[in-house]
Amino acid sequence: MPARFISFEGIDGSGKTTQAALLAAAMRDAGRDVVLTREPGGSPGAESIRRLLVEGKTDRWSPETEILLFTAARRDHLERTIAPALAAGRDVVCDRFADSTRVYQGAVRADLREMVDALHARTIGREPDLTILIDTDVDVARRREGARRSSEDRFERFGPAFQDALRKGFLELAASRPDRFHVIDGSRPEQEVAADVARAALA
Ligand code: TMP
Q1: What is the predicted pLDDT for the residue at 151?
Q2: Which domains, from first to last, does the chain contain?
Q3: Which of 88, 109, 141, 161 fits a disulfide with 13 by CB distance 3.0 to 4.6 angstroms?
């Protein structure tokens, strides 16, 4: 099997980070060479940009500046981590990719979606082979997030109505790209979700 690029998407607290790690472990058990990475981040430069994005006040950046920062981080991550790994025959499992920008910055402010898509086409120009959307009830996700306090809460502070809009945005995006997306119910126990993820990714 050629090297595969698999992304995980979902709202804050959806469980996608845990599921990405479990899938990477299952793929390694199956003998694959896997790079587990994340966005924003995944390379030294992109991790520096991450700190600018996820810490501080919610109004720290305008939506337009935010799109530029997420895309700059993604370009660095692609150049330094993702593309070299795939070229070397390694699989890449990525916790969030461009669909997060489409939904967090684009679906919620529909007028910005064109900017998101144009920048993506010009500077990134590639999609994962498979995208697993961990679709989790907003209340379940909020309880999970509550148990995990960190300084990286700039986006979570936008509140439940925002998370609800994000969930809908992800589901709409998945429905528009059925060739690439696989939607999995993330409100269930971790191991049940992991079994479905493994079936989707290792089939
Ligand atoms: P994380 O909690 O999954 O590490 O992501 C950090 C936050 O950044 C999360 O609230 C989602 C947000 N985000 C965007 O708004 N746009 C993006 O393009 C990405 C990758 C993340």
Answers
A1: 73
A2: 5-202 (3.40.50.300)
A3: 141
